[in-house]
Amino acid sequence: MIENPLLKAKPVLLKKSEIAGREKSPTSIMPKGLLDKLTREEILDLIAYIVSGGDVKHKVYQGGGHSHGH
Predict the structure, then answer these.
(1) Low-confidence residues of the chain, pLDDT below 50?
(2) How far is residue 54's CA from residue 41's CA, in Å, rounded to a whole number?
(3) DSSP string, 17-66
(4) Among residues 30, 41, 39, which one has the least CA distance to residue 66?
(5) Best exposed site among 21, 29, 56, 61 by fewest CB in 10 Å?
(6) Within a 13 Å sphere around the CA of 46, how many CA atoms are in the beta-carbon half?
């Protein structure tokens, strides 16, 4: 577990037996305004990377005028 991903702290390791319960958070852990600092092209590259699982040979990078390759 990392309490604050913006700090360079070591993760805290928890045993399953130490966890009383788990539930899905209703809010995202992505910091607000993070995408505001990216250009349109950087956002599209990020989405392509996520969709492709990081595979540059994935069809998302083929054709369609996407010339970034990263």
Answers:
(1) 66
(2) 17
(3) GG-------SS-SSPTTGGGGS-HHHHHHHHHHHHHTT-TTSGGGSSTT-
(4) 41
(5) 21
(6) 9
